[in-house]
């Protein structure tokens, strides 16, 4: 950064009780009031260089001190003090940080060539033209300082000249860029790599949004840079100033400061949206979707949201599942993901697709487009289905929106439904209670707890438990919010004819599916097997296996409890009472024994008759 040094005398200004004075043997005869600070100065130093002060003091006597109020001087007391020190010949340093305030104050005080040759304004203009406008970062810093004095800077042409200088450097071919710039992308090495095309995007992101918009509009008007570069500049600016909604789950508490920040962010968002080039692909669909999520979070205008939905739907084919995963910012929603955002973009895409697509055929671009969207949505549903608080209506809002032609097969849709049904089962809870104690002593709320597997796998659970424990309770319940009707609504979109053999084989064994869906899968599989002599599922056996009782963890634990009970009764000398299943089994065995004897006697009699018949034939 360059600076200009003026003056030769040391700084002799000092402060005493909100009063600024200059160390001098000559008594002060000029009192200037600026805001809350009083300056006690000398007319012989200031009047020769300041035309405004000369006019205000022309009617006063030289012997009396003149008091002047300058509350409206641009830049305030700091800018005035720079001008006053210049008049006294005290050393001052002018740089890009204080040039604007010094220049505006000098203009206000009329420190022109008409008042004195080689005055302050002339030297400031020379520094502005030869140093600030030549430098890349000096131009940006100077432009940013005009925010506090926008009207003065606009009238004096500072903003226009800085913007022209910055735009001219941006349009310079990267091979001719010789000045320093900021570029902090991961993996980039300035010493080993050439200047990137977007070398300028990070530096201009330091600017205020209105100044940033001026530069972007000026660049677009030249038609010399591709829209993708302009879109990258907008992306960098948004990442710098807009909140990251992926790290915010709920809106912050309202307050004056929060409202002010929200209004500022909303303004930044709307300007960025309005500045995006109209060319398709100028920004990525992931960036558009992120802006839409931010718009929902900040409560942006309907026009802004509608434009973002429209732009996102035009490029929805380019999206990935990660581009669609944004948290919900509504305080009324208990689920994590913002499903409404995806549903709105999908609806806009389908409206455009139905309006522009001809008669559907397998090889058209329109069919490939809708098939790609179908895959994307099914993968998205698989991702969000893991949210245990996600209601069925939200899943159906995106799953049912797709037309039948969007899915060549329903394997991915089945996987999404299966994941959703699976997470709707509560995790196992194991409670170990003591005798005559209703409250649990130990509880494991995680199915993956190693203690659970220890209890589940070990057939010697009574060895693990102490003698004071009486029982082990194992509970498994369905989610109360997922009724049979919800299951049917969820599975009615599933076309069993479009399932692969592997998926159908999994579906008929899936206990979480409604029975009607399983029957449909079996019916279509049997119908297909009758037409082809290929892979066929044995329908009767699968139905029997589905209805067959499969021992669960509860059954195993009950067996262990029974074994523990038998051991206790034997040690106490109590006669054992056989279980109903055991008594019925013994009765069956007793009934089978006489049947075997009768069968043997009948076989012997039959043999004797055959022997007698053989003898008769011989005779």
TrEMBL record:
Source organism (scientific name): Salix dunnii
Single biological process term from Gene Ontology: protein ubiquitination
Pfam families, alphabetized: NPH3 (PF03000)
Pathway stated in the Swiss-Prot or TrEMBL entry: Protein modification; protein ubiquitination
Region (Disordered): 569-619
Keyword annotations from UniProtKB, A to Z: Ubl conjugation pathway
Full protein name: NPH3 domain-containing protein
Ranges of compositional bias, category Basic and acidic residues: 597-619
Family note: Belongs to the NPH3 family.
Domain NPH3 positions: 198-528
UniProt keyword Cell wall biogenesis/degradation, yes or no: no
